[in-house]
């Protein structure tokens, strides 16, 4: 990012021999050191095509690639009439026009995913008969969305589902959410299936927690209001600490940080692409996955910058930590399910077989 000093001219002086070059280099280092000491809060200028410019000219994408480090994106020494608080200067330099071109896309994506999450809440309460659905991941990815045809179903008031069937419904919801992600269409069919295998169980856990959070619950509950912990107790299962982590502690950061629905849906978008195992993708899929991760990070960051001008970086860190909680919780959940593999009835819950036990049906 930092421009190398030209060997022919520096600070406006002609350099005619090596000794003069060394002297000029020493002078420039001294001047730079002096400015940093005198104005430590002002940071540095960005370089683009060899020119010193204010950061907003190089677009937000470039700054995001630098990890949003303040030193790399704040404008340099400004005149007295332009001096403002460092945080204000920082935001002014990146907000216009950098984020302005991205805001419509972010708004559209957040709106689509927000509506998807609301439809999922309704879908989970409908009288869906799992046995009548082709639960091959490949088929679910190509068939029309359940969320677009909710009028074909009725809302149920008295559920008769056991926990495995609820898990199947949750996995269906996660796939429906993934199908609404803008970048998913950029992958081949085989890569889409690999992404679903890797990510949808964690997305299902996250959606379940988010729904309980917005319902102001302190523990994860089913759409009929049944407490999962109580269901486990009624089934005679021993409630280990790992189950408490999965169904109770997972809600702690949500309640503590009071995340908004837009923050959460864009965080879920990032979560979906960051879980994927690149080694299982085609070369084109690996390349697109990298682009989708960056695009999702950019989308979330723009939202945070535009909705809060003081603590967006801390907010971003909290959301990334939330994703890590979702990943750890889903991993623990999978491990508990795999521990019971010897006693389970195989191929009864076909979607669980594919997403948890990595069963791959013949094409």
UniProtKB/TrEMBL annotation:
The UniProt record lists the keyword Membrane: yes
Ranges annotated as spanning the membrane: 21-39
Domain of life: Eukaryota
UniProt cross-references to Gene3D superfamilies, sorted A to Z: Erythroid Transcription Factor GATA-1, subunit A, Retinoid X Receptor
GO biological process, alphabetically ordered: regulation of DNA-templated transcription
Matching PROSITE patterns: NR_LBD
GO molecular function terms listed in the Swiss-Prot or TrEMBL record: zinc ion binding
Keywords: Membrane, Nucleus, Receptor, Transcription, Transcription regulation, Transmembrane, Transmembrane helix
Domain NR LBD: 132-359
Entry-linked SUPFAM superfamilies: Nuclear receptor ligand-binding domain (SSF48508)
PANTHER family named in the record: NUCLEAR HORMONE RECEPTOR FAMILY-RELATED, NUCLEAR HORMONE RECEPTOR FAMILY-RELATED-RELATED
Family: Belongs to the nuclear hormone receptor family.
This protein's name: NR LBD domain-containing protein
């Amino acid at each position: 990012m930092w421009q190398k000093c030209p060997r022919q001219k520096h600070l406006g002086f002609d350099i005619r021999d090596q000794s003069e070059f060394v002297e000029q280099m020493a002078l420039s280092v001294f001047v730079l050191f002096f400015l940093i000491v005198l104005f430590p809060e002002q940071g540095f200028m960005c370089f683009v095509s060899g020119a010193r410019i204010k950061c907003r000219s190089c677009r937000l994408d470039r700054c995001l690639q630098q990890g949003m480090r303040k030193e790399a994106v704040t404008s340099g020494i400004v005149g007295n009439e332009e001096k403002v608080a460092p945080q204000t200067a920082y935001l002014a330099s990146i907000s216009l026009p950098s984020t302005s071109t991205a805001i419509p896309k972010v708004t559209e994506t957040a709106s689509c995913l927000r509506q998807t999450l609301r439809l999922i809440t309704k879908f989970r309460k409908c009288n869906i008969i799992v046995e009548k659905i082709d639960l091959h991941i490949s088929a679910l990815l190509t068939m029309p969305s359940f969320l677009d045809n909710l009028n074909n179903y009725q809302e149920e008031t008295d559920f008769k589902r056991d926990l495995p069937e609820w898990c199947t419904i949750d996995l269906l919801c996660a796939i429906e959410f993934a199908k609404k992600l803008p970048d998913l269409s950029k992958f081949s069919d085989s890569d889409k299936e690999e992404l679903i295998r890797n990510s949808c169980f964690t997305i299902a856990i996250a959606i379940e927690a988010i729904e309980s959070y917005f319902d102001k619950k302190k523990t994860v509950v089913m759409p009929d209001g049944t407490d999962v912990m109580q269901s486990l107790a009624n089934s005679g299962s021993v409630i280990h600490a790992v189950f408490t982590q999965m169904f109770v502690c997972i809600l702690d950061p949500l309640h503590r940080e009071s995340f908004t629905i837009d923050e959460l849906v864009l965080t879920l978008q990032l979560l979906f692409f960051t879980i994927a195992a690149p080694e299982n993708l085609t070369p084109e899929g690996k390349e697109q996955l990298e682009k989708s991760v960056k695009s999702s990070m950019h989308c979330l960051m723009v939202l945070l910058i535009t909705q809060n001008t003081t603590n967006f970086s801390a907010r971003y860190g909290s959301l990334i930590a939330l994703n890590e909680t979702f990943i750890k919780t889903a991993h623990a959940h999978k491990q508990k399910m795999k521990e019971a593999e010897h006693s389970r009835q195989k191929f009864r819950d076909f979607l669980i077989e594919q997403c948890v036990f990595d069963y791959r049906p013949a094409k």
